[in-house]
## 1
Amino acid sequence: MLSRLFRRSPVDTTMRIEPAGQMLKVNAKATLLQAALDQGVAFPHHCRAGGCGKCKCRLLSGKVREMTDKSYVLSAEELRRNFILACQSVPLTDVSVEVELAAGHGPRHALVHTSGEITAIEHLTDDIVHVQARLKDAAQYSAGQYAEICVPGVIVNGVRETRSYSFASAPGADPDHHRVSFFIRRVPGGAFTDWLFTEAKVGTVLEGHGPYGDFWLRDGLAPLLFIAGGSGLAPVLAVLEQALLDGVSRDVTLFFGARTQRDLYALDRIESLKARWKGAFAFEPVLSALDTDAGWTGRRGFIAEHLGAVLGERLAAHQAYLCGPPPMIDSCIRMLRDAGVGDEAIFFDKFLDRSHVLEA
Ligand code: FES
């Protein structure tokens, strides 16, 4: 049975979204972003943890309680103009906000809260596992989106604690929408991943809800540049495998950043994609923590250092998708902008903002 994450309470407030003129109810415990997503509104967002600034909106009237300091994310001008982060703001009164909704920019799927039984756990590296599950209820999502998985037994202020993980599976590979998978990196001391790596097994039931995020493939003819680090390969593989199913043939360059050869994984899936892709497909692994005598003849260092060398002047023409640790994303975005790639052609998902930091 599907159920909404948040239920109405006697202390609901309302949020009016301008210029769309939409009026929404907001549960007293819900953030503005959660309320919008819960009601199917395409409110822009990425990390949901106060780190990316994607959910910023202007508070036109009313009062909110802000859960984190937004001054690190918003500019002085935005602060002066009363911008807030919707993912970190719980309304204290009826509010009205101004934001450009993402409607029309991508697919919308109903938010579902369901459970799933683990069907396989495969160790990909020393600290990343591939968790496959079969959901009790069918769930529609777009390749590149993520789910919130409940931490077993952890409830804070009456709300289940969750961790965010991108689907590593292409939804089109399972027409009945019950089979999903995730790449999950162990965070030492993290409540969820410590439990997952020591206690979870095939047959264990997890609960969660989703889908969230807007890291899906955009239309266009531009060649595609994917940049993945660590477990950030999950949504990138999902997007590429779904694109293959959809007949996309745009040229692809995929950079995969890891520390050593032992941290590279899913190479068979990448090779399979490359073999079946209709356009050109270049794969560039980059290792950052190798000994000089490690026997690696490929690229060393950080991905940002190699973008120009691999793509040269062609870099500016790309549509770019980045997923992984924030420092990798930030350095690559700087390089992309310097090379002339416009912000409208750059899409990113800062993985650690919502899983690692929340987990720690
Ligand atoms: S800061 Fe709110 S979604 Fe990232």
## 2
Amino acid sequence: MAPNRRTLLHAGVSVTATLASATLAGQSGARDPQPPKFLLADDSESCAAAAQDFGHIVQRRPRAICKPATSGEVVDILRWAREQGLKVAARGQGHATYGRAMAEDGIVMDLGALAAIHRIEPDRVVVDAGATWHDVLDATLAKGLTPPVLTNYLGLSVGGTLAVGGIGGSSSRHGLQTDQVLELDVVTGEGVELTCSPTAHAELFDAVRAGLSQCAIITRATLRLMRAPERVRRYLLSYPDLASLTADQRRALDERRFDQLQGAVVPDSAGGWRYQLEAGVFYDSNTPPDDKVLLAGLADKRETVSDLGFGEDANAFAKLEKLLRSNGQWFNPHPWLLTYLRGSNALEVASEVIAELNSDDLGPFGRITYYPMFKDACRTPLLRLPDERVVVPFNLIRIPVTAYKANADRQVVRNRTLYDRIREAGGILYPVSALAMSSQDWADHFGARWPLLRDARRRHDPDGILTPGYDLF
Ligand SMILES: Cc1cc2nc3c(=O)[nH]c(=O)nc-3n(C[C@H](O)[C@H](O)[C@H](O)COP(=O)(O)OP(=O)(O)OC[C@H]3O[C@@H](n4cnc5c(N)ncnc54)[C@H](O)[C@@H]3O)c2cc1C
């Protein structure tokens, strides 16, 4: 989002004086139309852009957008907004699907200018929260290092994924991106700058990671790094049905054959489904993996094997992004539903749901993500997962060919029905989904961890200004 008209505040005016007199131009009863001391855009083009997200389902128009360049400016904005009684939503890359980074008649805080990579050490990187994972990987790979968990798409911001979890192909080994955080610099809803970690303000640290931005805005993160492998050998194995795919996925998981294990059910050109296991093995050029050993005993032999540099492999989604941007489908509504199933009944639940879908529900480039993972490495308290050792991400990644709004609205209603069914079967929502959730739904979702989030919200955002888009409180 690039605001085309910004007002830069008068230099030399004290923050206190500015905050006290700050009102937005055009606000009724405005005593002094002098804008506050940070970049501010309230033109209709900027506000219209901030009223949209990747989902293109919900539109909520903010009163203004601001783009802080320092954490001090984040403090100023939050204090000022609180005084004005305005809600505030942080925005990273705007890839939410259901208005979660929007603030109706409030302030959208675009973190795109807070994107520096500050420091890289052998075991950690210090980055601003507006940086994308692409920025982070580029910088760390130059030193032969990588974050242990990368999302499949690198165009997401660090703050945006830490607010929800951040799952990737290595999550079975390393947990989620929220499990890789060593320290966070945040600004609370009260406008207080704090550094939190497992040993400092630990309760806030736990409430911020996967806490749906209800207590604080993340400005900077210290993230764990590991040595990056040089190359990835990637295997794409095809199966005739979900049961045989599931059996091989479970075997590969139990035997820990691959560094990355994922899979999907994808529409085929005849209106049916293809069932595929997607796996990767990391290696250095002088020790290539033995395909025969890795694939021994797996049921399917129609495998495709490819070999890529680690960075190229991590960025593989960029090709699909380019295609979807060029055919316009990137800009259509995306009524996604993302959940985690119990390992023990995943096959049964997924089979039932898939039997009721057809390829038009997904679109030709859509997919149903489906793979098992161990959850022992997932330790983020607010990241909810089914209570079993093996859980199964089960995601309806809908990429419709049409921008027809009524179609998307129908899918959103359907998402709710499917979610209710999945929940009854012990499944859990991944909150990046496009569906309406009430405060009670969220309390049920967080279960025993709900008091952690509720109490931290009361303490750190007592006026409840942050991130209204989830309807949590
Ligand atoms: C193409 C695509 C691929 C994806 N792949 C994956 C994947 O592999 N794994 C996965 O886990 N998820 C994936 N997602 C989902 C994605 O992680 C979430 O939607 C994420 O929140 C988007 O990040 P963003 O920077 O675009 O955030 P935005 O949409 O801008 O914001 C999302 C939420 O985070 C909050 N937020 C943003 N920045 C901050 C901050 N600095 N501090 C506090 N809160 C903040 C916002 O207020 C909002 O509530 C994918 C989404 C898309 C569209």
